[in-house]
Amino acid sequence: MTSLRARAVTGGILWAVAIIVLGLAGVSSYLTSQTQARFIEVLETRHAQAIVAVSNNSDSTSDLVRAIGDLVYQVPNSGQYWQVQTDVGAIYASPSLGEERLPSPFGRSGERRMREVAGPNDETVFTIGQWVSVSDGSLWHVQVASSLRSFEEDQVVLRNTLLTAFAFVSFVGVLGALTQVAVVLQPLNKLRHEVSGRWEQDDKLEVESYPIEVAPLVNDINTLMERNRDIMRRSRRQAADLAHAIKTPSAIMRNELDNLMMEGAEVQEAVDALDRLDAQLKRSFARMRADGTDATVGVATELDTALGRMQRAFNALARNEGKTFTADYDNGLRVRMDQSDFEEVMGNLLDNALKWAASEVQLKAGESADGQIMITITDDGPGIPKEEIAKATQSGQRLDTSKPGTGLGLAIAHDLIHAYGGKILLSQDEDLGGLAIHMRLPFASAKRSD
């Protein structure tokens, strides 16, 4: 699945790399050319000063060092040098050259020449040289040189500075892209959360609270949710209508069988078959209702209200059978399940527990650490052997025929609970010794106050 956030981050990184590469190359090239031009300009100025000094002091060569008096020429191996050579081969040099000498000029052209040559200590220097005519008419070659070492070191510092600057700008750009994505996606995140909440509350999304670019999508979602709700309502209504339509012929057949039984006819097998048929139909209709319900649809049951009613009913039933029924549950909890389905599940399970209990049935309900509703029903009956537990929730699997029933109570509960996204587990209770039924049901958020 493609992520918009991942796309934005990838795009930001690619742009950052492009900015670093192209920007560094472009700016570095420009600054290098400017620095190089400045380097040559300074050297040309020094060359012009040297020519003036030579022209004014050609008749007194001992004054040349003083005349070309820049301090950078006084320090040995300073990287700044000058050298004057007469047409008869005499050479005068700056103190910075020491015993070293710059390469002799080629030819005697009056043009100024620039070149890179090997200087003192095998160091590359950039030179500017030119033959000039002095006062006595002779030609002297005036040459100044500057080491490229400092120039190259400056270039390294410049590139590192630029790299750091562009990396910082790119980092800020990526952060900006992430911030922009977060801002742009905020309405979609809000939409995702509100779809669940509004659907659960059977409410519409407020189109006005979204940007105009997202509003058409919100309208479409509202339409889709309303259509789904309508489909589910019709499905549940059709299941209820069908169940009502079948009740009449079933009641007529049961009436006829009762009459035949009163007349002494052997119809017990037919009665049992009709009981099984009614139970199977009941389970099928429960499935149809469940299939017409989505776990996220706006249905919810107040746990304390529903369990309170069931507690009163089963307290009376338990007393009539000489048994006890206790219920312990938290107030204010809501389970995401239709009330009629929830009460049918609890009725089947409590009826089954009371039927098999020797003397006691317990019910406990509360919220788990992960936000689910946990309901546990236990009894002190014989329980179910481990190897038979899987069969207990299957259609019509009666594990013991000594008690009346169809064996579909657990199966119906299993189907309905799973339809709402819950789970049901059976085990042997360690305290009472009988069957323990553990249910995990989805939690329904509180009702909207607006």
Task: Give the gist of this structure.
The chain has about 450 residues and is of the alpha+beta class. It contains 9 helices and 12 strands.
Give keywords:
450 residues, alpha+beta, Beta-Lactamase, Heat Shock Protein 90, five-stranded antiparallel β-sheet, five-stranded mixed β-sheet, 9 helices, 12 strands, 16% strand
Helix fraction, binned, reads: 40-55%
Structural class: alpha+beta
Which strand order spans the largest sheet, edge to edge or round the barrel? 2-1-5-4-3
Distance from N terminus to C terminus (CA atoms, Å) equals: 36 Å
Largest sheet data: 5 strands, antiparallel
Say how many strands there are: 12
Taking Cα atoms only, what radius of gyration do you get, to the nearest Å? Answer: 49 Å
Mean pLDDT: 81
Multimeric state = single chain
Tally the helices: what do you get? 9
Low-confidence stretches: none
CATH architecture descriptor text of the domain at 298-450: 2-Layer Sandwich
CATH topology of the domain at 298-450: Heat Shock Protein 90
Strand content: 15-25%
| Rough outline | rod-shaped
What CATH first level of the domain at 298-450 would be assigned?
A: Alpha Beta
Q: Spell out the helices and strands N to C.
A: HHEEEEEHHHEHEEHEEHHEE
The CATH H-level homologous superfamily of the domain at 298-450: Histidine kinase-like ATPase, C-terminal domain
